[in-house]
Write a structure and sequence with these properties.
Blueprint (H helix, E strand, L loop, with lengths): L3 E7 L6 H9 L6 E8 L5 H11 L4 E6 L3 H12 L4 E4 L10 H11 L2 H8 L1
Parallel strand pairs: 1-2, 1-4, 2-3
Amino acid sequence: MKTLTIFTPAFNRAHLLPRLYESLCNQTCQDFDWLVVDDGSSDDTKALVLGWITENKIPITYIYQQNQGMHGAHNTAYRNIKATLNTCIDSDDYMPLNGVALILSKWETIDQKNMLELLV
């Protein structure tokens, strides 16, 4: 299992997703998976993402649901994330090439024992 899930809610964003996809393929650290929650798109989002899954450059999970709005897509993502960490990167954004590495590097500096004590 990957340490980080990057999730992206998408609604008719096929024209924007390629830039994000390319930025994820080019990450310096590949310890992540990408979860795309398609919130009822009527454009080519599904075909685009399924094509990328076939390419097998990065691990991608695609979930289609009837339109529920941004909050519904986030809720679906949280129900399906299995990684320790997650972050939302919107469909019109991209990750800097070292974005995953920076997130995981910062995570390693956190004293997890102290974090657990704060939660209790």
